[in-house]
């Protein structure tokens, strides 16, 4: 019988109704239980925040190691380190704290606060485990064993949270919400140390999902590997959440790089087939990782963000207005070099007579102007005026101090950092495999350039000591100096110092920076005097002395031959021009030519010490104009008519850059828009950094235009900047310079740091030198800059004063690699950066980096030359493109070639 009446109780109907009722009842209970549970969790999290505000002395961290397929649990007590902060501590951290406080007051969720710092996916902890060995900040990778936690049930919340991610985002609809995924936290006491709360949270370990532990040790499934390895010849591919390959060349392609797969490297694929052991990431979980980030980045920027982006674009356009670029890149005009590069320069000192040109130049208002002939009135190479420059610099400084721009840039930089970490979590193993697969090449035989080294301190202290002793033994009767009205031989000099060759040791030489030099640039400079004696400096470390710098030339040649013996190390030495007299250039050039100073492993930069006030007091200069005349007039003379200074003409072929140096921490007044011209600058005060920078830039700009028009080599402006002092140094360098030495002070300005990232301005950083002068090693921003993708290289600055070993550059890499746990891939990437930053010629760069080094992205990378996996280069390139798309609202067209 078919029951159609509601009054009749057929067994089927009643059981169906009962089932429905039970289902509804159960669902209701489940939902209520969830909300009750969630509320109690919220309360507990609130309580945790409360606890976090107090400062317990210790925290307990349990670390889970994933060793092969086993999981060990280790317990570790950690004493929280009391950090002594410098007065000039990061402004960035200050922003962290402000943001943290804002979030704290606005949000009830602990996760929101925490993720503000982190910006990580909730699924990340699982991936972290696979790379625990790669940890950079160890504490971040310490994991909690849930079993010992009183918050076991939070796991459920986490998995529920995953489903809720999209919903959460859509409702939030704001940029800052993008990474706020529900993620439970450890119940351990939160350490709170005064204002360091945010930093402490950074060290909070993440809680792995116990249920997910199983996938940690899933061996690679050959099928699933195939899925991502079989994405052929398309580095620019990404997966969407369904595993479909998307073409990320479409305008909106966030995180393409995150999931980019290596393709061009046959070795990589082969290796993966051979060695699949260390990769523990299952295919599906990868998608889980990338999905949330991708979703958020598709969000349209709100109005405030659009305004910020507009301002950032203005800054980038300002830089393009100023910075000197050759009309044609070297790879455009010297196509013949690609097939047949002349590696051997037969005679670097050969002088080819060059006919002078009609060009006429005149110094006007501190800047040389060039005319086609004496009667012409049209300025051939007009350059922005000082008023224009100072106006733009102030505009840039104003933008970099706006609160919303600072927050936005800080946020983007944090995002960049986390993207890099995510990249490592997913790809570190693959990068390593890729490096293993590159035959012959390793860190020792990739080219690395010491991008920042002062010539007079280029030898190490042991080398100098040995040299002095040998001279004292072999040439004791050489007349070396004129002091106190009489000529002295080397033997007499040492007798006057009451020293014998036997007494001399490295300690007596006393040229090493020590604790007394920290924040004392003056004392640091005094260390250039061997045994504290300026006369020894004059004899051994000067070019313009009684013996015409013969000793310095000899020791330089020894350094150069050591460099050549190492084959893969290069250096860019800085030699001084002081601007006290015009003959300095000829003197310097003749020192080079007469002593035959040349090496294929070295190029030279000119450094101008910013010492106007000293010369003014001594009476050597009467106005700032004197210095500009002495520095630049000879350069224009030799460019117009090489026969006027033939040696200088030859020497300038080796000169690739111009630098300004001195203690940046000296107080100075920031220039206003209308400054007195250099000829009016007759007072005894030293002009500000940016004043020096502008006038050097403007004269170099005109000089380079002229030299380029005559087919001569150009000289880039690559000053010391951002080692200490005010932020306007970095602002002026952003507008004017190709790249800079130091740049540590970028940590104080998120806006400038982000702009330096976008413009990929090279930073020749020197953490060991900073450690002696301005920034303790463990506070050096180098690792952060590196992670964020700034264009950083490592350099030595002053091996004589700082380094201990025979290979100072390798020492610099070594310390950085040890302290910051850099991988082989990292240091090879840094070495690659250094070659790009350097002023070595296009021809040798082709040889060192590969035939297409000037192409952006993976096309420009040759792992067989650089030992950098294309996976890494693609990640950097795609990430950079995403940032540019963000700033230009998706309307940027990327050039194929690098900037030149
Ligand atoms: Zn330096």
TrEMBL record:
Residues 67-93 have a biased composition (Acidic residues). Keywords: Hydrolase, Membrane, Metal-binding, Nucleotide metabolism, Transmembrane, Transmembrane helix, Zinc. Zn(2+) binds at residues 452, 454, 720, 797. Substrate binds at residues 454, 523-528, 723. GO terms for cellular component: cytosol. Pathway: Purine metabolism; IMP biosynthesis via salvage pathway; IMP from AMP: step 1/1. GO terms for molecular function: AMP deaminase activity; metal ion binding. Binds 1 zinc ion per subunit. The keyword DNA repair does not apply. Its cofactor is Zn(2+). Its EC number is 3.5.4.6. It catalyses: AMP + H2O + H(+) = IMP + NH4(+). The keyword Metal-binding applies. Residues 64-93 are annotated as: Disordered. The active site is at residue 742. The chain crosses the membrane at residues 16-37. One of its GO terms (biological process) is AMP metabolic process. Belongs to the metallo-dependent hydrolases superfamily. Adenosine and AMP deaminases family. This is AMP deaminase. It comes from Aquilegia coerulea.
């Amino acid at each position: 019988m078919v029951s159609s009446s509601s009054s009749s109780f057929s067994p089927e109907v009643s059981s169906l109704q009962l089932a429905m009722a039970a289902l509804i009842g159960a669902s209701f209970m489940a939902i209520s239980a969830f909300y009750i549970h969630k509320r109690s969790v919220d309360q507990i999290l609130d309580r945790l925040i409360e606890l976090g505000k107090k400062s317990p002395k210790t925290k307990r961290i349990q670390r889970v190691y994933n060793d092969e397929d086993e999981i060990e649990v280790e317990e570790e007590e950690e004493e929280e380190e009391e950090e002594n902060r410098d007065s000039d501590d990061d402004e960035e951290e200050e922003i962290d704290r402000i943001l943290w406080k804002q979030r704290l007051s606005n949000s009830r969720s602990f996760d929101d606060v925490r993720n503000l710092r982190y910006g990580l996916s909730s699924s990340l902890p699982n991936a972290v485990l696979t790379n625990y060995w790669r940890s950079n900040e160890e504490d971040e990778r310490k994991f909690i064993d849930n079993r010992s936690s009183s918050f076991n049930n939070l796991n459920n919340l986490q998995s529920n949270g995953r489903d809720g991610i999209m919903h959460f985002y859509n409702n939030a609809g704001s940029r800052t919400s993008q990474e706020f995924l529900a993620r439970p936290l450890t119940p351990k006491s939160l350490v709170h140390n005064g204002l360091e709360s945010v930093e402490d949270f950074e060290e909070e370990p993440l809680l792995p999902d116990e249920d997910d532990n199983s996938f940690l040790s899933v061996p690679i499934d050959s099928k699933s590997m195939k899925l991502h390895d079989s994405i052929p010849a398309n580095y620019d591919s990404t997966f969407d959440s369904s595993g479909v390959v998307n073409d990320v060349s479409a305008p909106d392609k966030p995180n393409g790089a995150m999931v980019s797969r290596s393709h061009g490297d046959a070795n990589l694929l082969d290796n993966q087939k051979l060695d699949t052991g260390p990769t523990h990431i299952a295919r599906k979980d990868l998608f889980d990782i990338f999905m949330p980030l991708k979703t958020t980045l598709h969000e349209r920027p709100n109005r405030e963000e659009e305004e910020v982006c507009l301002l950032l674009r203005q800054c980038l356009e300002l830089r393009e207005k100023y910075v000197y670029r050759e009309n044609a890149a070297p790879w455009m005009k010297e196509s013949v070099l690609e097939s047949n590069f002349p590696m051997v320069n037969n005679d670097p000192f050969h002088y080819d007579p060059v006919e002078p040109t009609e060009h006429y130049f005149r110094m006007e208002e501190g800047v040389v102007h060039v005319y086609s002939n004496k009667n012409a009135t049209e300025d051939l190479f007009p350059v922005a005026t000082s008023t224009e420059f100072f106006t733009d610099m102030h505009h840039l400084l104003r933008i970099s101090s706006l609160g919303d721009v600072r927050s936005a840039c800080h946020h983007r930089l944090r995002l960049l950092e986390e993207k890099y970490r995510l990249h490592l979590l997913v790809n570190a193993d693959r990068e390593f495999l890729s490096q293993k697969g590159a035959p012959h090449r390793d860190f020792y035989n990739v080219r690395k350039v010491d991008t920042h080294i002062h010539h007079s301190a280029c030898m190490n202290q042991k080398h100098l000591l040995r040299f002095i002793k040998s001279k004292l033994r072999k040439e004791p009767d050489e007349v070396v100096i004129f002091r106190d009205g009489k000529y002295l031989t080397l033997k007499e000099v040492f007798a006057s110092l009451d020293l014998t060759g036997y007494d001399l040791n490295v300690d007596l030489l006393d040229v090493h920076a020590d604790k007394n030099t920290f924040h004392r640039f003056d004392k640091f400079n005094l260390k250039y005097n061997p045994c504290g004696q300026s006369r020894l400096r004059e004899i051994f470390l000067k070019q313009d002395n009684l013996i015409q710098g013969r000793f310095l030339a000899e020791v330089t040649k020894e350094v150069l031959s050591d460099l050549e013996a190492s084959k893969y190390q290069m250096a860019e030495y800085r030699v001084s021009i002081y601007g006290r007299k015009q003959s300095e250039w000829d003197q310097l050039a003749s020192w080079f030519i007469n002593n035959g100073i040349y090496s294929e492993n070295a190029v030279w930069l000119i450094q101008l010490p910013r010492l106007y006030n000293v010369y003014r007091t001594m009476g050597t200069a009467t106005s700032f104009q004197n210095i500009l005349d002495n520095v630049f007039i000879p350069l224009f003379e030799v460019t117009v008519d090489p026969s006027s200074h033939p040696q200088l003409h030859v020497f300038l072929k080796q000169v690739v850059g111009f630098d300004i140096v001195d203690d940046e921490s000296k107080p100075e007044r920031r220039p206003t828009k209308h400054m007195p011209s250099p000829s009016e600058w007759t007072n005894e005060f030293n002009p500000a950094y940016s004043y020096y920078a502008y006038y050097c830039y403007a004269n170099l700009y005109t000089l380079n235009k002229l030299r380029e028009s005559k087919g001569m080599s150009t000289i880039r402006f690559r000053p010391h900047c951002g080692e200490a002092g005010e932020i306007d140094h970095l602002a002026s360098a952003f507008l004017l310079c190709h790249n800079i030495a130091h740049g540590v002070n970028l940590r104080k300005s998120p806006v400038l740091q982000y702009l330096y990232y976008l413009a990929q301005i090279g930073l020749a950083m020197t953490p060991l030198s900073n450690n002696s002068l301005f920034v303790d090693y463990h506070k050096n921003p180098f690792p952060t800059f590196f992670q964020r993708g700034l264009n950083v290289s490592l350099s030595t600055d002053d091996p004589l004063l700082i380094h201990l070993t025979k290979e100072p550059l390798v020492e610099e890499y070594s310390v950085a690699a040890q302290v910051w746990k850099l991988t082989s891939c990292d240091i090879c990437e840094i070495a690659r950066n250094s070659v790009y930053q350097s002023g070595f010629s296009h021809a040798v760069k082709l040889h060192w980096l590969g035939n297409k080094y000037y192409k952006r992205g993976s096309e420009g990378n040759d792992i067989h030359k650089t030992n950098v996996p294309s996976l890494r280069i693609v990640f950097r390139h795609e990430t950079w493109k995403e940032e540019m798309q963000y700033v230009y609202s998706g309307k940027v067209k990327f050039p194929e070639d690098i900037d030149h």
